[in-house]
Structure formats: C-alpha cells, structure tokens
Amino acid sequence: MISDSGLIINRLFWQNGRGGLLNRADFWDTISPNVQVHLEDITHLQAKHVCLESGTEIPTDVLLCGTGWKPTSFDFFSVDDLIRLGLPHKLEDEPPEITKPWDQMVQQADREVLDRFPILAEPPKHHHKASQTTPYRLYKGIAPLNDSTIAFVGYFNVGNFFKGAECQAIWATAFLDGNLQLPSIDSRQLTIARHIAWCKRRYLSN
Asked: Which of 15, 82, 162, 186 is deepest in the core (most CB within 10 A)?
C-alpha cells in the first residue's frame, strides 16, 4: 500500500488483533502436551474435584477463575455510576453537559494526533461499526477521574499480555494505596481524550 504522501505501508500496520501474537517461542510446545481442554460448564465443586455438566469429575488441587467480562458490559453498576466512573454506557444515557466537553476535547486531540502522525489520516478501506456506547474515560486506562477507591485493569490489550497485566497491577496498586502524584484533573482529561482520539484513528474497526 502506498499512501498519498508516498510512504509504503505494510497492511499489517493496520491490524487490530494482538491476541494471536506469541509471548514465548516455546508456548505451544509447552501447552500442547500438558493441557486438556473441556468445553463444558461447571455444575459444582467437590473437595478435590471440579464437576462438569457431562458428569466428568476432574481431580483438582487449585481452581483459577479467569472469567473476565464483556468489555462494554457493566450491568452491576447503575447508569449514574457508569457515567461517574468513566465506564462505557449508552450514548443516549449521557447528559449533553457531559457529552459536549468530551466531544470538544476529543476533536482537539484528534487534530493533535493527525498533526503528529499524518499517516493515520490515510487509512485503507475498512469495515467500521458505529459504537452505541461511550468510550472508556479512565486515566491510564485504569483510574476514574473522580474516585480513588476503585480501579479497572484488563482494558488494555497488548501483544505481551503477561507484562501488560503486571504493569497494570503495579500501577493500580500504587493508585489505590495513594502512592501516586497525579496531574490535575484537566490534564488527566486531556490525556484520556488523546487516547480516545488515537484509538479511533489507529484501530479502525474497534
């Protein structure tokens, strides 16, 4: 692909999914002979067994629950809490007095992004599905602007998941312990707006 500016761009540059990137060269060789996958729901637990729907009982020493959640589904929070914490919520649920300042900041940030990375102004043709929710508005992708008692990790997906998770955990712990000197709320808002603008330009179908 050759951009209007004459730059030759590998289409891989525009790929969005990092989940297929391996973190270790021996990953599959280590996993394949040592892991058995069960595509079933767990019905109950016993002292030393995990019991599946089929009746299979798996001898178990430790059970790790890595269930996660849908990135834009926080049904356990009220709409007011979603807005307050900067978590995704339906566009129509947000009052105009909140939407308008954010839109203005993101527009300003978009100009900054394109000024610094003009290549992002010339994306290839792509499918784009309009979002029905607001983006995350978390500082560093972790911290709400107005609440220092809660943090959210796992929003960032990077090629090296293990290192990314470790860095987020360290930062979130320092944040919750009050050991970080955070910039002003205005500065944090601009940082968030730049991240939103960058993601819209860089990750086309997300």
From this structure: 82
Counting other chains too, the contacts that 111-118 makes at CB distance below 8 Å and 24 or more residues apart are 112/194, 112/197, 113/194, 113/197, 113/198, 113/201, 114/201, 117/201, 118/5
Residue 68 has pLDDT above 90, yes or no: no
Distance between CA atoms of residues 176 and 150, nearest Å: 7
How many degrees, rounded to 5, is the angle at CA 183 between CA 89 and CA 155? 35
pLDDT given at position 92: 96
Q: Which of 142, 147, 136 is nearest to 171 (CA)?
A: 142
pLDDT band of residue 20 (cuts 50, 70, 90) is low
